[in-house]
Design a protein that fits this description.
eight-stranded parallel β-sheet, 216 residues, TIM Barrel, 6 helices, single chain, two-stranded antiparallel sheet, alpha/beta
């Protein structure tokens, strides 16, 4: 069955909604430029709530976020850190050495098959998240709700990695098609299940998870 991550959660009610609907993972964005940004202390409280409810909490960040290392070190409930910035393979390797007990997911922007070659260089990452490339002039690397050609991911794997998540432009209406076309075993959604930036629509969350998990 496909795993589902509901990302960009900003409130206790949204965390409860996602988990009750069957989310496997929940994501919290600590990047100030994001409309879904939550400060460290609030993120920590939401992460602990999610862990108590049985979902795996992910933190979405960039290595340039001030205080990220301390936050990760002091929040053992974090299951994974999704590095969604312009990190180099060396940056990811250094971060992984500093946090050996935390899984590292590297986000990579995709516009075509050639972009997947970049994954080969991130040997220190435990897994990948593939999102659409950000538009020109963007102040952040993800969270724009844009899709890309899902077929470029069909059969993708590297010599050292098989785990990857599909993100970008997914909605309750298209997630089943995206899974079938890409072969994704995990999907991530944020804006596609929102009533407004940072506020989840419970009906959309439930519909998204139901549609994703119905794919055989």
């Amino acid at each position: 069955m496909v795993s589902v991550k509901i990302c960009g959660l900003t409130s206790e009610s949204d965390v409860e909604t996602a988990i009750e609907a069957g989310a496997d993972y929940v994501g919290f964005v600590v990047v100030p430029a994001s409309p879904r940004h939550v400060p460290f202390e609030k993120a920590r409280a939401l992460i602990r709530l999610a862990a108590e409810r049985g979902a795996e909490p992910w933190v979405v960040a960039t290595t340039e976020v001030p205080g990220l290392d301390s936050f990760v070190s002091e929040t053992p409930e974090i299951a994974a850190v999704q590095l969604h910035g312009k990190e180099t393979p060396g940056d990811v390797a250094a971060f992984a050495r500093r946090h050996p007990l935390t899984a590292i997911v590297k986000a990579i922007g995709v516009s075509g098959r050639k972009d997947l070659q970049l994954a080969e260089t991130f040997e220190a990452a435990d897994a990948f998240l593939f999102d659409a490339k950000p538009p020109a002039g963007a102040t952040r690397e993800g969270g724009f709700g844009k899709a890309f050609d899902w077929s470029v991911l069909k059969g993708f794997r590297t010599e050292e990695h098989e785990d990857w998540t599909l993100s970008g432009g997914l909605t309750p209406e298209n997630v089943a098609e995206a899974i079938r076309i890409s072969g994704a075993a995990a999907v991530d959604v944020s804006s596609g299940v929102e009533a407004s930036p940072g506020v989840k629509d419970p009906a959309k969350v439930r519909a998204f998870i139901e549609a994703a998990k119905a794919v055989k």
